[in-house]
Design brief:
The structure is a homodimer. Chain A is of the alpha/beta class. The first copy, chain A, has 18 helices and 27 strands. The first copy, chain A, is globular.
Chain lengths: 561, 561
């Protein structure tokens, strides 16, 4: 950055590159709305006032607010690549994304992390990375990568690194597990994101003493308020699955609590939902509908997030700040009229990102060859069967006799579910019974399987299940559906088995198609055929799950049979 | 810091070192007042709630607020050393001091700066340093040290360094002087303090584009509000000479402007004033009297300052924060009952600081030997005479004929004033005439002479003036008064010629005594005999000044005769 050019442009000794004339500017520092022109040079705001520029655009009294910050997001959930995802955010006014590439790093380890940090610099938004703290997520599964404190430290000085990603291992913190403490100590000089659902009282005090600075897991106002009191920045989450905004913001309004240590995030939001309403723009809009003042909502979406994460040149429409701007028709409905990134209208931003992906990330599906008996389940008198619950992420542990299982397999209420290790061809796999999924004459499989992202397969016959695994290996990961011995549809997610290399416009109809195909094959319409499946391998959520190591009782925190 | 101990103490797996029972805690994040105990281990707050501790103290329902932050202070103005000054601040609840050692570094250059950073670590408060950006302050004088960008960069990584000190050279910034730009660029990743009295409009925009983040020079609400809008943190100053708080805070209250980017400072406050009312505690009290909510005032004094300067573990009574606490009887009059630093009551803090000062700092008064004609002024028809204005820092430029001067010298209205270079024995000196000071049969001299701190002497005869210079050389700097060929009183300021090595209790009566002696010798009682004198060498303040290089017209910004 050439500050001489900025200093000269601010004084009109040189004409600014761009002047947005006649704006109503929301000033996040004073809480005022100021009328004036916005002068920009080299992508930086150099003046607010009356300016002439080389290029001028009349904003005609519309509102201009700082570009929004999505303070915590897993881009992998969108199933498109970081640059492609960034464009989707940008259209709705998000100009800064703070990501935790937890999923892809569980697949590709340090190589994936280095790759994401490289790609971050090619994204059209500001793209910051919190280094994943929990790879693998638990000791009960085999992930592709393993990152200890020493591995993470190597990435600390990257210009896109802001700190350590969400520390999900709360028991590890509270018990001072040395591998956890090593990571916390290594990042004590940076922001450490928390993940502490329902942690309270002295345990919350202890968790915060470890150095954790943020939390995005509050679901009630009371939980959020306790965390705020405890010095945590509260990131109010409104995603596709977790919708916490109404409860928290209603409480904030009712109690008139200070919002200066609060920001907004989505955590996980699906592409279709983003296309419908945006991300942080939607959080802001909904907060204002709930009675929060537009100024406070905009502060949460901008300068508060910037302060929480130590970002010094974003989050305000003010001199010296990046010209990341959202032009709005109003500050009630937050209709986005235009977005500028570094002073460039989003419509003019090139989508030729030149992002390069490591070969290993594009060839990440490497299961050992399956055997004839890979999906056999030893005969027993009594089985623990995973019970899917409609519209929920939790499962039931259903006790069934051998006869009940046989009958269920016949009448379609019981299916086999298997997890096959796919990173290092270890040959590790486990198979169990599951209810509540539906599906007839075939198999559904995906390489998206939280958090280790092994191959997870559900089916009513072993042959189709094997074909599904082979198909996912062939296409380097994704979603697939097999029927009567033939692949009927596949959605490749060739980047780590998690993300498509396609554009969003190409990707969305393919995703819709394969989901519909699954429903047509009898999958329960009260669940998402793939997302529900992808959560069956997450060992931290009650009551019973399956990993490549076996059936797991998430309440007893141990394997079962 | 051993976070395992903190995590365990928070859960009472180990008893906390200290528990303050039954406090009313001001929570700066939520703006609430919370009743509870405060648990401390290793000087860090580990819990708020119900706790038992190895040591317990009942606060009995008194208020506990975070230790205050003095966001901008020149400790040299107190004329006592940094650790001794820190104790004075501490007694009134200031636990963090952000200093700019501009004065001492103008005397001692890099050696002095290194010395102050070393001493900072021995101070009983948190003692942070902004590296002086303007040494020398102007090109019109000879200071002891010269610091360019390369010199400053060497001190960037010191744990006590927060950034670059107040950039007073506004014209240098606006004109992109390369030496100024080099310094700004070198500190673009840290906080850069501003100093922009009455700078406004496009010039203010340009100044902010240079990377400056704070300002403490606003004297009206309108000036402060413009700077806030312009992304500057406004440090509301209430010192001994500059009292800006009433004007600014009254406006803040009237306009209900957001205070989150505002903090408090004193800039320069004399020891006697501090002893009477404290520093930041006084700013808080006065703000509340003016109608600001106690919570907002406390936030400005604590967490806001911490955020502005990127200090992560101070400014809140919350887990993981330093146990820097002020116990108050109320939050209206802010009567300080007790102060804790790192969990230790101020009464128990050792005053054996083990601060070591560089020998060169204790032998900093090295003028060349004076000649018989050193204080001669060539005869002219017309003279520019410095006119002291009662109770003001500005001067008048009084045009006097030779006859008027002769008569003035006789009737006591005109005196000689001289500046003698004292750092490197260059022999540089200048002498001029001055009115408005008073003084009969003697000389008054000081090595405190802003900003280069050469020896400044005023007198009615050359002999006493010479004796005064010799005396200041003999005692390694300070204040002195000579009468009829004899030294009648001297106050040594042996640290750089600016600060006394004595305790505050020893120092104060000696200071009072020498000031009274000056008045008894006829010095105008509407000025301070020494402070007024010390500002006569400051070439940036209108209208006319004297440096070791000559008489200076501060309006034309050039030397005169």
């Amino acid at each position: 950055m050439n500050i001489n050019r900025l200093i000269n442009a601010a004084q009109e000794k040189e004409l600014p590159d761009l002047v947005l004339k006649n704006a109503k500017i929301v000033n996040v520092f004073t809480g005022e709305i100021i009328s004036g022109d916005i002068a920009v040079t080299d992508g930086i705001i150099v003046g607010i006032g009356e300016y002439n520029g080389k290029n001028e655009k009349n904003i005609s009294g519309k509102y201009v607010v700082p570009g929004f910050v999505n303070a915590h997001v897993h881009v992998e959930s969108s199933m498109i690549t970081p640059p492609v995802y960034s464009v989707e955010e940008l259209k709705w006014g998000t100009t800064t994304i703070i990501t935790d590439p937890h999923e892809i790093v569980n697949v590709g380890g340090c190589v994936a992390l280095a790759n994401i940090l490289d790609v971050a610099k090619k994204c059209p938004t500001n793209y910051y990375v919190m280094l994943p703290s929990c790879v693998p997520a638990t000791p009960f599964e085999h992930s592709g990568g393993v990152l200890n404190a020493d591995d993470l430290v190597k990435f600390k000085n990257d210009e896109c690194t802001l700190g350590l990603g969400e520390m999900m291992n709360v028991p590890g913190v509270l018990n001072c597990d040395s591998s956890v403490i090593d990571k916390l100590n290594a990042f004590s000089d940076m922001v450490i994101d928390g993940h502490s659902p329902m942690v309270s009282g002295k345990e919350l005090n202890a968790y915060v003493c470890s150095g954790v600075k943020t939390d995005h897991e509050s679901v009630t106002y009371e939980e959020a308020a306790e965390k705020l009191r405890c010095a945590m920045a509260v990131l109010v989450r409104e995603g596709s699955a977790s919708k916490n905004l109404k409860a928290i913001i209603s409480g904030v309004v009712k109690n008139n609590i200070d919002t200066s240590n609060m920001a907004f995030c989505t955590d996980d939001k699906h592409l279709a939902d983003i296309r419908k309403e945006g991300t942080i723009r939607f959080n802001v809009k909904k907060s204002v509908e709930l009675g929060l003042s537009p100024i406070k909502a905009i502060q949460m979406a901008t300068i508060n997030a910037a302060r929480i994460y130590g970002l010094k040149n974003i989050g305000a429409v003010a001199c010296g700040y990046k010209a990341d701007l959202v032009v709005l028709d109003d500050i009630e409905k937050f209709s986005v009229l235009d977005v500028y990134k570094d002073g460039v209208p989003v419509s003019e931003i090139s989508t030729d990102f030149n992002a390069v992906y490591d070969e290993s990330m594009l060839k990440s599906v490497n299961p050992a060859p399956l055997k004839d008996n890979s999906f056999d389940i030893p005969k027993k008198d009594i089985y623990n069967v995973i019970g899917i619950v409609d519209n929920q992420i939790i499962t039931e542990n259903i006790i069934m006799t051998d006869e009940e299982v046989r009958n269920g397999l016949k009448d379609g209420t019981v299916r086999k579910i298997a997890v096959v290790e796919r990173h290092h061809a270890t040959g590790n796999s486990a198979t169990a019974y599951i209810t509540g999924y539906g599906l007839k004459h075939g198999a559904v499989a995906t390489t998206v399987a939280h958090d280790s992202h092994n191959i997870i397969i559900i089916g009513d016959n072993d042959n189709d299940m094997k074909i599904a695994v082979d198909e996912l290996k062939r296409v380097n990961g994704g979603y697939t559906i097999v029927k009567d011995g033939k692949v009927v549809d596949t959605l490749p997610l060739e980047l780590g088995g998690l993300m498509s290399m396609k554009s969003a416009d190409e990707f969305i109809p393919l995703l819709d198609r394969i989901i519909n195909t699954a429903y047509e094959m009898g999958v329960n319409r009260n669940i998402d055929p793939f997302i529900t499946l992808s959560f069956m391998a997450l060992p931290v959520i009650p009551k019973i799950r399956i990993t490549d190591c076996g059936l797991f009782d998430a309440e007893k925190f141990s394997f079962t049979e």
